[in-house]
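I wish you would study the pair of lines that follows with an eye to the fold:

===
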Amino acid sequence: MPEFRETTLSNGLRVAAEIDGRGYSAAFGYFVRAGSRDEVDRESGLSHFLEHMMFKGTQRRSAADVNRELDELGGQSNAYTSEEQTVYYATVLPKFQDRLIDLLTDMLSPTLDADEFATERQVILEEIAKYEDQPPFGAFERAMEVHFGPRGLGRRILGTTESIKTMEASTMRDYFHRRYRPENIVLAASGNIDFDALVAQVEQLTETWSQRPTVATPATDSPDTVPDGISLERRIAIPDAQQAYMVGISPGPCSTSDDRYAARALGSIMGDEGGSRLFWELIDSGRAEVATLWPHEFMNEGAWFTYMVCAPKDAKSNCRLMNDIIQGTIDKGIKPEELKQTLSKATAGAIMQSERPSNRLFGIGSRWLTCGEYLSTDDALDCLRSITVEDVENAAKKYLATDVTEIVAVADNSASTT
């Protein structure tokens, strides 16, 4: 059976690991509490920008060295940024544990070279342009901005063209020193790992991290203003769009809420890709290409999303039908067989995912970073199996009956869906 171990190093860095000597691989990741919600206007997009810069060289390695060594280890590696954290991770054979930890730890002390900064700025700008040119054309970001406000959880992960163009390397250095402090970071591991060797190595490699300069916290932005490049209009006009894209957002359970498992089950019953209520009524019938809903959990808040894609001429009738299906669930509840099917699928998925250390890594690291809590696969299965029909019906009344912020991305000449 897997064993969970954790410790806090002398500099404040936390290490959390789920150890299973039966595994054929080992997964490691640095989880940093640095996301878009931690930025101010002049830093908008900086967490993600900084993630890119971590691969651009250190005092010990050039950018080419970093990428070459990752390839030499023969595993899988990547990074991502969200509203609440930035994560750098890799999965390798157990014999490469020491080499990978040396590399990942070194990467978290980047040189932040000015020339590399200028080059990567153009990469980020291209990424923003590409993203805004693809469906649903920023509708999810607009929904977050309108619902949460354009700052905090509503701030765009990529930033805006305006914020990235005016970003300065000195601003990035200050943000790095403010957020990338050992007490703000968790090193998570899962699989066939040597925990004692891991702790000893990281204690030595990160001993200087606590000496990083202390920088002042920037002034908060005025709530009476809107950041440059941000619009709070609920309709996005897209030239030559062939379909209509509707995104709705309302309050949902946070990551520590007792409702979160019932809400996930409700999302599956209502909006799963196959066999859900919205699937049969809107997708299988050919009325819509996409029709789904789901909860998304943040540390102290949550969101409930609805999403539909269909022909512009069908948007009004499909929105009415989706709302009728949602209201019917609130009024009449769910069937026991729907919950049974959903829980069977969820438990099977949880068990199969747990077989790979790389899958377990993210739950371990994220939860230890944000909640200081470990949830084993058995614990998660117990939570799933304890969900009742009443729990799901209560979640429907609590979260589906709230006012919804609606965003529509549609061609200029398409009929309104409201």
The first helix runs from residue 46 to 53.
